[in-house]
Amino acid sequence: xxxxxxxxxxxxxxxxxxxxxxxxxxxxxxxxxxxxxxxxxxxxxxxxxxxxxxxxxxxxxxxxxxxxxxxxxxxxxxxxxxxxxxxxxxxxxxxxxxxxxxxxxxxxxxxxxxxxxxxxxxxxxxxxxxxxxxxxxxxxxxxxxxxxxxxxxxxxxxxxxxxxxxxxxxxxxxxxxxxxxxxxxxxxxxxxxxxxxxxxxxxxxxxxxxxxxxxxxxxxxxxxxxxxxxxxxxxxxxxxxxxxxxxxxxxxxxxxxxxxxxxxxxxxxxxxxxxxxxxxxxxxxxxxxxxxxxxxxxxxxxxxxxxxxxxxxxxxxxxxxxxxxxxxxxxxxxxxxxxxxxxxxxxxxxxxxxxxxxxxxxxxxxxxxxxxxxxxxxxxxxxxxxxxxxxxxxxxxxxxxxxxxxxxxxxxxxxxxxxxxxxxxxxxxxxxxxxxxxxxxxxxxxxxxxxxxxxxxxxxxxxxxxxxxxxxxxxxxxxxxxxxxxxxxxxxxxxxxxxxxxxxxxxxxxxxxxxxxxxxxxxxxxxxxxxxxxxxxxxxxxxxxxxxxxxxxxxxxxxxxxxxxxxxxxxxxxxxxxxxxxxxxxxxxxxxxxxxxxxxxxxxxxxxxx
Length: 610
Hints:
Elements: E1 2-4, E2 10-12, H1 24-35, E3 41-42, H2 43-50, H3 58-73, E4 86-89, E5 92-95, H4 101-111, H5 115-122, H6 137-163, H7 167-180, H8 185-197, H9 201-219, H10 225-235, H11 246-260, H12 263-279, H13 283-299, H14 303-311, H15 325-338, H16 345-358, H17 365-379, H18 384-396, H19 405-422, H20 425-441, H21 445-462, H22 467-479, H23 482-490, H24 498-501, H25 504-515, H26 529-536, H27 540-548, H28 559-573, H29 576-586, H30 606-609
Antiparallel strand pairs: 1-2, 3-5, 4-5
Helix pairs in contact: 1-3, 2-3, 4-5, 5-6, 6-7, 6-8, 7-8, 8-9, 8-10, 9-10, 12-13, 12-14, 13-14, 13-15, 14-15, 14-16, 15-16, 16-17, 16-18, 17-18, 18-19, 19-20, 20-21, 21-22, 22-23, 23-25, 26-27, 26-28, 27-28, 28-29
């Protein structure tokens, strides 16, 4: 269930359909509880705020409104069971949800400077906030706050467009903005600057004069020094008003590079570009070209060059299943071929870390041994980037049995410390994501939320869009509704992470169904199929055969989830051998939550399965 207050107050069900909320006072109760942001609103206060002169029976009417809202918001709730959304606490009521459009809008505006995210956030507005309740005192403060935030977001969008060289695109919206809100001096500044950068110096000066007239005539105040200085700068065509385009710098530098640099240097530079491409959203393209760069280095017959090309691709990795196992095997084989020729500790550490990272999900002892050797070498070097790379490899190989969340948390903590000390923002993000997962594993959601917020802030500052995939999935886990999981899954489209995406949404929905005593839905579970299949079969004999054929799960962040699925099926079928097998595997994770180490989904406490 999601709620909208950026316009008329509305609720949408998991399929996105509007929910019938009955009369205006039903909506008023819902809106007032949303304004309270999860705090309890006493029933007597609701009476005072819903009626200027409360009639006899007003308190009973409020209880009737609440009962009707509960039926609308949780239509599948069994009779006499406790409500999960609109709850009774002490003398009043509270709405337990995070799925409110205004709160999502606020999170983006306060935490992101990326143009697409800001534009999407502004698109959540369907009209004035709490539109039906403009005259109600209880809504006015929240309406004013959200309106101010929206005006600020419009100006942030304009600033982002100017920074990207899209000055002409910023003009129409800014023109409408200052017409509707003529007292906002920063909006006038942005409009004049956008016009000037669009080659319209005369229009820019005219706007500043118009701003002066509006401020003097309507507010009786003179423009501030910022507007006055901008007018002077435009008249003088000050150099700082026309910053050099990043695209121009790129084109000129690339042309000079092509004229002067040879094949070997180009290959090494290509890996650097591929690394940057991977962390800024082009993961799939980077992966496609990386193997070509390694093959080209090997063809030149230079093992030192090949080692540098392989080892330079130190893209932080958080997910423990490979996106392309054939590609990964080829990288591992190339690294193993060149490793015996390398005697410098830094080169060996990078190659060993690559072998461990690209062998994620493998049961082969070589993968873990390579990670530990890379770490041992890196700790003897004075190179924090190599140490961070090696720690990432060790993290990737710390899923070989259940119950290792605390070990991974220690790795995440060290990554954050090293990265903050030596300005390694991508590894600092990785450290926060690892600690988010580890906190989820022990149901410490306060700590997990702290690390999600930190990761999002770093991602916004350093243009790392793929981070939002993991933080939004964590938010879905916290909201724990089918709609929230579907919304999170949409971020995976085009993200270039098939190892994460394949079957993840069906698995998350299956886990939700099991925890809510609902049938496991039939779906394409992709790589998760062997462990979910016994729960899908209606024939007991077929289910037993499927259960007996279930392999040991591969090392990974879903290890405990797979064993919990095995335990669930074995319990339903009274299959003692499989129960014993699952119990032995899950025992080391008795204090953890099954599946939550992924930060994506959960099957509840492991102790319940033991």
